[in-house]
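[step 3/7] inverse_fold.run input=structure_tokens len=504
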């Protein structure tokens, strides 16, 4: 009982211990906030990557692809059909996008992907990144008569400005959304050859040209449609607005390689029918077109059988299915010399590994803050042992054992760790809950925008509190405080009562 009373007395009266408590508190709070933010951004990044890539990608290493997507999908179903929710073939080739801005042409390197609009939504969340509500329900490559959202998933209101809606942020249930904000969309003068959003009819033939005897009217007719990554035709202005070099309804030209050896450069015109925006530059620089059209243009359709070549098959799995298990089943069945079979995590392995390494190193550096607090506890306790030598001698002369004296200091270290970690937990969770408001306040205070919503494409800083991680942080902080008190406790326990009283 006397050990508990002495621990409580030292905790209340030794104000120098506040330094150690504050150090532990700051270390714990900082680690909770950093881990929550890192986990939030990691989840957001993975969610957007997985929104474009299917669970498993079955692909050919050849640019010309391999024939008969339907036959391959039947074979895949034989191997792992019980695990598969959907499949969709795609064709992807490197290409160049060209469009006119004023009197000049802009050329950009792209990846051109042909998708089946009827099945592609079943293997990815591609639709939720599109800017027209009808395309988010079911993609087609027809130009819509208005209703486009130039920023993020909401049709423009009547005042001509575009607003970003309250978007759901993956994270802790305490997360709160900010009010909507608007950013005007500015189209540079001369960037449009005609009125955007105007309804058009499809007047192109199978090879991308106007049927013989007809004159193509760009004001009323459209080429085959394409969906552009928004990064290809937009940029952020200093005043927070977005400028677009092209809008839905504009025509663009795509230069791509033909099939065969050697490949030859070919080109075709497409009409922009929608944008998509993931805020990941690698994926916002892709152009999607109808798969059959791209196969026709590249000449990969067998004229005798009508069977076309494909580059990959996107496979989505049923919820709860082990991706690696299905991947290994397919790898064991199909020849690795011809087919490349990877999960979406395999495709983005270096990026995901880099994020994990960054988080681990950051945690290690931040944990040193708590280690510094441990050295503070060690120094304070050694000072207390010297200061309380006479009291320790009296306690031992009254019958206190060495283990009892040691228990006093270990209990004191434990109490410092618990109090500091508990306060850090409360402060850290409150900071996480209001982190967006805090960032906005600090930004106004120093005159800088700490979190640019237009860059990240989300209205709030995403946070996810992983309770196992929080438990390890709390446990580590308390353990360091206890370990730091072992040496002073051991020295106090070894003091002989006669020697302690004699030197006093």
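[step 3/7] decode complete -> sequence:
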């Amino acid at each position: 009982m006397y050990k508990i009373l002495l621990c409580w007395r030292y905790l209340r009266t030794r104000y120098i211990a506040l330094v150690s408590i504050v150090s532990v508190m700051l270390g714990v709070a900082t680690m909770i906030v950093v881990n929550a933010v890192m986990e939030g951004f990691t989840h957001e990044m993975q969610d957007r990557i997985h929104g474009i890539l299917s669970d498993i990608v079955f692909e050919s290493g050849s640019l010309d692809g391999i024939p008969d997507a339907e036959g391959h999908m039947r074979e895949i179903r034989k191997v792992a059909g019980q695990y598969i929710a959907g499949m969709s073939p795609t064709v992807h080739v490197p290409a160049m996008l060209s469009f006119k801005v004023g009197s000049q042409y802009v050329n950009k390197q792209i990846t051109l992907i042909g998708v089946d609009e009827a099945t592609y939504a079943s293997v990815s969340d591609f639709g939720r990144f599109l800017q027209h509500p009808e395309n988010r329900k079911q993609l087609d490559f027809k130009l819509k008569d208005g209703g486009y959202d130039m920023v993020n998933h909401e049709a423009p209101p009547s005042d001509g400005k575009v607003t970003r809606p309250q978007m759901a942020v993956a994270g802790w249930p305490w997360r709160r959304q900010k009010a909507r904000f608007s950013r005007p969309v500015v189209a540079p003068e001369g960037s449009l050859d005609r009125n955007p959003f105007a309804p058009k009819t499809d007047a192109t033939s199978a090879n991308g040209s106007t049927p013989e005897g007809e004159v193509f009217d760009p004001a009323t007719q459209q080429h085959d449609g394409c969906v552009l990554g928004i990064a290809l035709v937009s940029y952020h202005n200093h005043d927070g607005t977005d400028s677009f070099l092209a809008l839905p309804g504009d025509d663009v030209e795509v230069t791509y390689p033909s099939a065969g050896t050697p490949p030859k450069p070919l080109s075709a015109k497409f009409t922009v029918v929608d944008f998509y925006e993931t805020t990941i530059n690698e994926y916002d620089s892709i152009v999607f077109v109808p798969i059959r059209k791209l196969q026709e243009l590249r000449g990969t359709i067998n004229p005798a059988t009508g069977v076309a070549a494909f580059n990959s098959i996107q496979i989505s799995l049923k919820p709860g299915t082990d991706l690696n298990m299905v991947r290994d089943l397919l790898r064991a069945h199909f020849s690795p010399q011809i087919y490349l079979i990877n999960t979406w995590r395999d495709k983005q392995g270096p990026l995901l590994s880099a994020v994990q390494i960054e988080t681990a190193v950051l945690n290690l550096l931040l944990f040193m803050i708590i280690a510094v607090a441990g050295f503070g506890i060690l120094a304070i306790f050694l000072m207390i042992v010297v200061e309380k030598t006479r009291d320790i001698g009296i306690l031992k002369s009254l019958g206190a054992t060495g283990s009892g004296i040691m228990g006093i200091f270990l209990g004191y270290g434990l109490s410092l760790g618990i109090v500091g970690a508990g306060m850090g937990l409360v402060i850290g969770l409150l900071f996480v809950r209001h982190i967006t408001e805090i960032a906005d306040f600090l930004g106004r205070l120093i005159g800088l925008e700490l979190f640019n919503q237009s860059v990240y494409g989300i209205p709030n800083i995403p946070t996810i509190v992983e309770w196992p991680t929080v438990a390890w942080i709390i446990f580590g902080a308390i353990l360091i405080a206890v370990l730091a008190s072992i040496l002073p406790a051991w020295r106090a326990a070894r003091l002989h009562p006669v020697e302690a009283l004699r030197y006093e």
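[step 4/7] annotate
The first strand starts at residue 56 and ends at 60.
The radius of gyration is 32 Å.
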